[in-house]
Predict the 3D structure of the following.
Amino acid sequence: MKRRSFMKTTAAAGAAATTAPAIWSEAKAQARNETLLLVTESPPNSMDIHGVGTNRPAYEVSWNCYDRLITYGVKKDANGNDHYDYTKLQPELATEWDLKPNSVTFKLRKDAKFHDGTPITAKDVKWSFDRAVTVGGFPTFQMKAGSLEKPEQFVAVDDNTFRVDFVRADKLTMPDIGVPVPVIMNSALCKKNATATDPWAMEWCKNNLAAGGAYKVERWQPGQEVVFARNDEWKNGPLPKVRRVIQRIIPSAGNRRALLERGDADISFDLPSKDFAELKTSPKLTVIGTPIENAMMYLGMNVNQKPFDNVKVRQAVAWAVPYQQIMDSVMFGQALPLFGGADNKFKGAYWPQKDGYKTDIAKAKALMAEAGYPGGFETTLSFDLGLASTNEPLTILIQESLAQIGIKASINKIPGANWRGELLKKNMPMITNAFGGWLNYPEYFFYWCYHGQNAVFNTMGYKNPTMDALIDKARFSTGPEYEAAVKGFIDIAFEEVPRVPIFQPLLNVAMQKNVTGYRYWFHRQLDYRQLVKG
Amino acid sequence: MLNLLLSRLATAIPSIVGVVIVTFMLTRLLPGDPAAYFAGLAASPQAIAEIRTKLGLDKSLPEQFVGYIGDLLQGNLGNSLSTGQPVVAEIATRLPASAELTLFALIVAVAIAIPLGVLAAVKQGTWIDHLCRVVTTAGVSLPVFFTGLLFAYVFYYLLQWAPAPTGRIDVFLSPPTHITGFYLIDSALTGNLETFWGALRQLALPAISMAIFSLAPLARMTRGSMLAVLGSDFIRTARASGLSPRTVIFTYAFRNAVLPVITTLGMVFSFLLGANVLVETVFAWPGIGLYAVNALITSDYAPVQGFVLTMAILYVALNLTIDFVYGLVDPRVRLDS
């Protein structure tokens, strides 16, 4: 009978499929031991950190494949995990440097070579720095943050000596040379691939490396995977332990977790807080959570619109946010509280820090009455749908809590692509948002988020000449004068409260027990060079 | 015959022109500012303006449209901002991934649905008819992403029968030499058994989840159409003439019943090809649906336009093919009629 034989054959095929041994080759098992498999959510879109619209995953490629002149040292954080040390600058391509008031002179490593074997010279360094300050967009902007502004500042003295002349004394100049942007590129190779309309070889560098760093890209399938191989000739640091790194894009968070738990993947960022909270108890995995420096999740109010122009209303909101509930049921404890401090004053020259607000509905109601809104008002609370897994429950909790003091907030979900455009308009009355700065200085954060220059991250449109003066002073001063300025602007920020700090997020990473050497970096990407797979 | 083909193709041109115009306008109407999005974190208004100029978004809409058409005529669909690659190249690598998955799923579905539908019709009211009803109801009521997640959980996470859901091929296997872009075919052609087996294993779960979903319309259509044909006069005559049940069912009934099934097959195929984004997300399948949705989320115009255009051309081609298959299956259907 046809049906029977059909059933039989399918059953047999099914049995064969489940019992047939995988055709493992020896080479494959070997490769597995020497390879680190990293699973992540979004793919890099470029090999060039100077490119237009280069995304965060691409910074990771750049960081591991390119060299910079200097890098940062390492320290142990409170939990005994490796943490980059922003106070300590260390050699990378430069072996030593001589910092003078008006310039800094770097000596370059003599035997360092690019991936194609060309020696790295000061000409390459100059070309790369020129490129970063000329091409515009993000790289130029980031260079400017350290007062690195025009090509005339960069001088190739001889093959192994490179000098940067300062346009002004800026304590961020040296740290800014260690961030991911000022990479050292192979200028000869780039020039070969440049065209008249594209003198900086932007098109070519998007898909090709002109690098000399610790890893080479062996295969790149955009949107799917990047395979890195160690550059065995690398001289600018200790040779990395991991020979190959495969970065696979796994869009589903559930599957990334399953891959980790089954031992098929070695390491992953990008999991929801709830998963990390659960994985922390797993005996099979190591989970490291590091507070993200200079970052916070906050509730911002538009100070140029009624009723948030009234400081009492803003304070009332700050007393009404359900902080602890957010920590417990939105973040599952995977964050540091920025509320409930002893008082509403400066506690030291670091940022972020706890303010004195906590949930106190009675106090909030009293402030609302004082402000002239005893019956409350209606407003909207907007958030970025791109980060909905945190934002959505967060805004709902805030909405419920605000209702208790008479504020009827309707929630406005804004698609990720649209969010930045909306921020730029600065007309949303109330938002929840997160911001983090690379350079770990309070005044750096305040310069972006509170200064009257009104950068896009000053989402509240806050302008206060006293605060601006203090921020500017802190940027270019040191010692007690510096501390006084920082104290000044932090006190104002807490008192005037245009943005209500809620929590400092953690950067979580989960890895197999045999993976060690993980180091937290301010750019929040993975540095393969220190990892060890035992 | 060639004239016929050409006239058919000619009727497809207006729809493609329409698709080009509509997608261009629709992507521009979408909220969101790609320049602001791609300017990155610490972008100043000047930086955003620079990027807008670079992307050509500061030009007027008609100017942008003329530029777009000019590129299109040269076979250039533009560059995707979110992956940094030319859209044509991306679609060329991703379409085979989606097509392989969809075709495989469809073959599995047809292999189950048609025998099931025919049996259910022939043995109406028996257990096999009930089984058919249960399977089809379950099939349509289980969304693909749910079966996908469930399968990944059960067969990968719990039982370890299936490989890790990491895309088209195991991480430690290299993809086969590119010939057709279909991994199964390419690895078979090059005689690379390890890769063939690996690709097949990766394909199994997503294809089965999709097959379960597409099984339902096919099985129901086969059953219904078979029932109608089996109840008609010429079948009664055939039976009365003493033809074997086998001849009656396959030669007479099935051949007559298959026309609506083919129509459904075409619809299911085109639907699956565009709508398998959920399966692609769950199984990290680097297909075209996932690509389009990611582009849409980031207001990345070029890939969205490229995707819609490709799909439109595929639909046109598919409908054309189905028309021709009609003619082959049933000589009564004339293309010129």
Notes: The mean pLDDT of chain A is 89. Chain A touches chain B through 62 residues (CB under 8 Å). The radius of gyration of chain A is 26 Å.
